[in-house]
Amino acid sequence: MSNWKDRQVIIVGGGIGGLAAALALARKGIPSQVIEQAPEFKEIGAGIQLGPNVFWMFEALGLIEPISALAVFPNNLIMMDSVTGQEVTRIPLGDSFRKKFHHPYALIHRADLHKVLLEACRKSDLIRLDASQKVVKVDDTGDGVIVHTESGKEYSGAALIGADGLWSTIRQIVVGDGKPNVAGHITYRAVLPTSEMPEQFRWRDMVLWAGEKVHLVHYPLRTGELFNLVAVFHSNRYEEGWDSYGDPAELHERFAKTCEPVRTLLNKIESWRMWVLCDRPPIKDWSRGRITLVGDAAHPMLQYLAQGAGMSIEDAVCLAEKVVAMNGDYPAAFLAYQQARYLRTGRVQIMARVYGEFYHAAGVAKELRNMMLGTRTPEDAMAGMEWLYGRQPELMAGAAAAMAS
Ligand SMILES: Cc1cc2nc3c(=O)[nH]c(=O)nc-3n(C[C@H](O)[C@H](O)[C@H](O)COP(=O)(O)OP(=O)(O)OC[C@H]3O[C@@H](n4cnc5c(N)ncnc54)[C@H](O)[C@@H]3O)c2cc1C
Known about the structure:
The structure is a single chain. By secondary structure, the protein is of the alpha/beta class. 37% of the residues lie in helices and 24% in strands. The protein has 13 helices and 18 strands. It has helices at 16-26, 52-61, 64-70, 95-101, 110-122, 169-174, 248-254, 260-268, 308-325, 330-359, 363-374, 378-389, 397-404; strands spanning 9-12, 32-35, 47-50, 76-81, 87-92, 106-109, 127-130, 135-140, 145-149, 154-157, 159-162, 181-193, 206-210, 214-221, 226-234, 244-245, 273-279, 291-293. The protein has an eight-stranded mixed β-sheet with strand order 5-4-13-14-15-12-17-16. It has a five-stranded parallel β-sheet with strand order 7-2-1-11-18.
């Protein structure tokens, strides 16, 4: 009799979530076929922050070493008031942070994170990667799935994971809830060689300058060779879109009320890329039969907790655990997986919106924010992060075993 592990799983989308899912399945001996619409498996974009919660997943995937070789481990998370230029709060990320959360806080270039996942996938005999194939249709045949691409190619497998991001085709098949919400927040991002970053700002910290309906973030990347800058402001001028070149005049206009150091930093950047931010409200049911979703396809969120990629990697590890626990009964495993995940990912989606309000507060709300954060001790701050950065025992047996040893 054939083993259920002989049949491949189809993964639509070769971004961070899709590659993490392929790797998590391969580590359990389950083969997969990843199908990516772009001509190459590649990430562009800028920096990504990784909380200690994601390092539990890297441990389960055997990736701590290659990730650590490319990451920067900052000294502090700092919030500055971008109008007064005063520090609001700082959370040291040294020994007591690492002791509490067992893992560090890291900053990495998105392309480096993707490259580490891709290289690990390429080393596995159980993972096949096809680019230049856009999935347009899926048939659930009851005991498997057949996937059709725009170019007329067909793939079959035991089950399907939609890891196809914010504008997911697979979500429309499973959930059918139309387009995501346009948040009315615009992000401009740039990556600079460290030599071009004004010397007084070359801090080895994750720094957020909170303003009124605006904020600016900067942090070092790629072991300190680069700096990542992210500027966010409210605007209803844009409907939707992704990764286009922005209009710096509007950026400078929106940041006109910020202090001189912030404006100096903004003036340094010549070529910004622009994102129109979108999310969705949380849902609890993103699986149907042999089809499920991971990452932004399942729970797209605003970036303000810096957890979208982290949640997609957590999804991947949890999903593989459930497939094995259910002995290859994919419909049951997918229900168990979404049951284990929806409250956590929903909380991150909701709290990301709340943090956005916090970063962009004005008037009394801003005074209250500065007072509340300014009077916190680092211990208070870390206690407030426990739900997010602490170990999630229900996510994966592998990390629990590592913790016990
Ligand atoms: C400004 C900004 C800052 C962020 N900062 C952070 C951060 O600091 N930390 C963090 O953890 N997260 C962060 N995120 C979130 C993070 O980038 C996303 O949550 C993450 O990339 C989602 O990964 P994914 O694999 O689910 O989707 P994606 O990265 O969107 O990948 C989807 C893939 O599917 C492919 N695809 C789509 N449709 C099809 C199809 N029909 N057929 C075949 N292939 C298809 C796409 O080409 C793509 O390669 C940030 C996001 C933004 C916008």
